[in-house]
Amino acid sequence: MISRRQFVIGLMTAPLFWWIALLDTAPSRKGRTRRRLSVMGATSLMGYVKAALPGWEQQHAGVRVAVSPGGSYAGLKGLSTGQVDLALSDIDPPPGFVVVPVHRFPLGRIAILIIVNCEAGVKSLSWHQVRALFEGTITNWRDVGGKELPVVVVSRSLSSGARQVIQDGLLKRAELSSHAIIQLSNGAVAKTVRETPGAVGYVEAVMPLSGVLVVDLGAHHYHPANPVSWPLYAEPSIYVRRDAEPLAPNLAEYLARGSERFRFGIYSVAREGEGEGGRRG
């Protein structure tokens, strides 16, 4: 039996797969040599993948690679149903979501930051305060030491892996505010928070942020030169079907080893104990 999240994601992602079909980028299987690949998934990884692709394509002349966003769940669903060759995801597939054997190529970690509109009047929030803001139980910034200003929650959609990280690592069993503004990308969340007085949201640290304030989370202060100590993060990976033609895992391995990952907010870290809000999933 599918979950409510999986049902909603199916409705949201169906048009994307029609678009892929029109481009004739359906994946090939072993025994069928084709010179095209399709990549879909987490919007947080689009910048890195598009920047790294030319280097791989130089080594594989004539191979066409189509890259499209849609979110982690869209990429995983497309991989499972045979619509894409590589799925980009910043969460692990939920049990039963991907129904075919796959290979996983870890990329590292991406910090997930809490951002607020500059008029909110706060620079630091506790874990409890952030939970209450996103739940909607705190509705005015004066209640957390800020200005007399209504709180406006901005979130990613259900198809986003970042939202799943926030749900599992921060909200836990609580629900996101029903009044939240839903956006489809990190850039759209940042823009909405920047332009909306009293807004609060979350973004993956994969792009420069201007016009918003990255708040300290408890005792933790985020610095892009040292993201390892930040306690809220996603762990993105590339997934490839085990029955894919050799080009697909070759591209996945190339991306997983890319030297430019750090420039796009993806950092490596030794496996140790996870922080309070670390990715659980």
UniProtKB/TrEMBL annotation:
<keyword id="KW-0592">Phosphate transport</keyword>
<dbReference type="GO" id="GO:0006817">
    <property type="term" value="P:phosphate ion transport"/>
</dbReference>
<feature type="domain" description="PBP">
    <location>
        <begin position="33"/>
        <end position="208"/>
    </location>
</feature>
<keyword id="KW-0449">Lipoprotein</keyword>
<protein>
    <submittedName>
        <fullName>Phosphate ABC transporter substrate-binding protein</fullName>
    </submittedName>
</protein>
<dbReference type="InterPro" id="IPR024370">
    <property type="entry name" value="PBP_domain"/>
</dbReference>
<keyword id="KW-0813">Transport</keyword>
<dbReference type="InterPro" id="IPR050811">
    <property type="entry name" value="Phosphate_ABC_transporter"/>
</dbReference>
<keyword id="KW-0732">Signal</keyword>
<dbReference type="GO" id="GO:0005886">
    <property type="term" value="C:plasma membrane"/>
</dbReference>
<comment type="subunit">
    <text>The complex is composed of two ATP-binding proteins (PstB), two transmembrane proteins (PstC and PstA) and a solute-binding protein (PstS).</text>
</comment>
<keyword id="KW-0564">Palmitate</keyword>
<dbReference type="Pfam" id="PF12849">
    <property type="entry name" value="PBP_like_2"/>
</dbReference>
<comment type="function">
    <text>Part of the ABC transporter complex PstSACB involved in phosphate import.</text>
</comment>
